[in-house]
Design brief:
- The longest helix has 25 residues, at 463-487.
- The N and C termini lie far apart (74 Å).
- The protein is elongated.
- It has 491 residues and is an alpha/beta fold.
- It contains 12 helices and 24 strands.
- A hairpin with a 2-residue loop joins strand 17 and strand 18 (360-368).
- The model has no long low-confidence stretch (mean pLDDT 90).
């Protein structure tokens, strides 16, 4: 639909837009990104004919935009600027009606039922029907922005240009505005070009994004292709981290502020341990990034408290998560910053190991029982059980900086080490008569301080993998021995 070839623009012989070329398809939601002074607004003004290019050309449907009359252009392109003058006393409906000017032979001199229908339709689309008789000055900033969007939509354009449309809007208004544009894009094949300062909003809504820096086109592609930490750090000159959205196949960008250096004493050495018959609590004055299968704090997160709680062997609860939250709160623990597990194993059997190596400081805590040992490769032979509370609970705290890949690999390494301990002790699956690989309700937590040495990988032969494998195998072996000895069983 839109084609830009060799476009340039200069202010007083200073070239603000270097030669750039790109195209935009009909129905595309296209984002323009870049730091302040990169040329984003200048580019949008060139597309809207507010400025005339110094060189190159812009065509819409193979026709130069300079060939359009003003009314023809207004029928094709609508603009929603970042700031709109509200120093007039028109009502909401009267303001939206102005969007039909391009379709009139005189200023509302031949207002038709079709025009009225269009106005009512866009008022409905922008949720302004109930406000149509109110004056613009009576509205909130978010409501005013919706009015000016409705006015632009009343033009029935093929192309909508937006300059930071969500600037100064509350989160709900931001999402509502962009969701509405996405709906129009789907239903009416509206092409949208928008400047964004918020990289995450651009990631969520744009099909493609163009990244500008100092008037140059640095990169063009999908958000997944463009939003790479090293590229954004170079362009925005700030520390950036890229993650995946937890619900959508979209990248999310986080900022990394400069953080004060912590105490010279090891984070692991500063851990406080409270050991009671009902629970063991490890507390830190430092937040750990965690990957966990625990009842509380599952998945990736951040926590400073780690709880292994003893419950009765026949513990039953319709909502174990909520019951565990209540327990933690009752004991003065912050649920939002806690990884919490349950076990039917007596906590006197716990094994806690701590060490410090060149790779960092480590702590491993394991409670283990083998009453519901199982061979995962033959679990299909078991009837579906009434699952009991966790019987091998493993906490691994590391003073190091891990990538998400390293987290997963450390988890795999720890699982292999646990399985080796079970094999050494010849723990069997009582149903299949084969060697057990774990129990039916094992839980694990990998926690990294995200300080100190950084590790990209955490497999068995990496510095952290070697230490985790050794400590988990040793702690699991000893925890099972404690359990068996207390039960009067032979390993």
């Amino acid at each position: 639909m839109i084609n830009i070839e060799g476009l340039t623009f200069s202010y007083h012989h200073d070239q603000t837009i270097k030669p750039i070329s790109f195209s935009i398809e009909k129905g595309e939601f296209f984002g323009i990104l870049g730091p302040n002074g990169s040329g984003k607004t200048t580019l949008l003004k060139l597309l809207s004919r507010t400025l005339s290019p110094s060189g190159g050309c812009i065509t819409i449907n193979h026709r130069s935009i300079s060939d359009f009359s003003n009314k023809e252009f207004a029928k094709t392109v609508a603009v929603l600027p970042q700031v709109t003058d509200t120093a007039f006393s028109y009502s909401v409906k009267e303001t939206v009606q102005m969007g039909r000017y391009a379709h009139q032979t005189g200023l509302f001199s031949n207002w038709s039922q079709h025009d009225e229908n269009i106005v009512q339709e866009v008022l409905e689309e922008t949720s302004l029907i109930h406000l149509q008789d109110k004056g613009i000055g009576e509205l909130s900033g978010g409501e005013q922005q919706r009015v000016f969007l409705a006015r632009a939509l009343a033009q029935q354009p093929d192309l909508l240009l937006l300059d930071e449309p969500t600037n100064h809007l509350d989160i709900s208004y931001q999402i509502g505005l962009l969701d509405g544009l996405m709906r129009l894009r789907r239903e009416k094949k509206l092409t949208v070009i928008s400047i964004f300062h918020d990289l995450n909003l651009a990631s969520l809504y744009c099909d493609r994004v163009l990244l500008l820096h100092e008037g140059k086109l640095v990169s063009l592609g999908t958000p997944k292709q463009i939003m790479q930490s090293n590229l954004l750090e170079r362009i925005y000159d700030t520390a950036i981290i890229r993650k995946e959205h937890p619900e959508l196949a979209k990248p999310m960008i986080g900022l990394l502020p400069e953080i004060e250096k912590s105490s010279r004493q090891s984070v692991i050495d500063r851990l406080q341990i409270e050991h009671q018959s009902s629970h063991i609590v490890i507390q830190s004055d430092h937040e750990f990034k965690t990957l966990s299968s625990a009842v509380i704090g599952d998945g990736f997160g951040w926590s400073h408290t780690f709880v292994n709680r003893h419950v009765d062997l026949h513990y039953q609860c319709d909502d174990a998560k909520e019951e565990m939250k209540t327990y933690l709160k009752t004991n003065g623990l912050d649920v939002t910053n806690t990884v919490g597990m349950m076990t039917a194993v007596q906590l006197q059997d716990v094994v806690i190991e701590q060490t410090e190596t060149q790779a960092g400081a480590f702590m491993v805590m394991v409670t283990a029982g083998t009453g519901n040992a199982i061979d995962a490769s033959n679990a299909w032979q078991h009837e579906l059980p009434n699952l009991q509370p966790g019987t091998i609970n493993t906490f691994i705290l590391i003073e190091a900086k891990l990538t998400e890949a390293a987290f997963v690999q450390v988890l795999s390494t720890a699982t292999e080490a646990k399985t080796r301990a079970l094999s050494t002790l010849k723990i069997m699956d009582p149903i299949t008569g084969t060697m057990a690989t774990g129990t039916s309700t094992d839980s694990i937590c990998i926690a990294a301080s995200q300080t100190g040495i950084g590790f990209e990988y955490g497999g068995p032969l990496t510095p952290i993998g070697r230490q985790v494998g050794k400590m988990v195998a040793s702690a699991t072996h000893q925890a099972i021995m404690n359990y068996l000895n207390r039960k009067g069983l032979n390993a």
